[in-house]
């Protein structure tokens, strides 16, 4: 995790984002749980086709601030090319 931190700081990245099942491990390393509405593409894994666009708050979402900005409580769009 220290290597990811170093990589992020060297490239002026503001946040590290992850989805975690075992949050305590990440909390010990500076991550916090956030509650943002998320949008993403749902895929049927059997047919490998797009089903629909998902939109809900995900309890597993965590972020770590490695820059100078504050985390925004708005919608997190996981569909765009920047993600």
UniProtKB/TrEMBL annotation:
Domain of life: Bacteria
Name listed for the protein in its UniProt record: Acetyltransferase (GNAT) family protein
InterPro entries hit by this protein: Acyl_CoA_acyltransferase
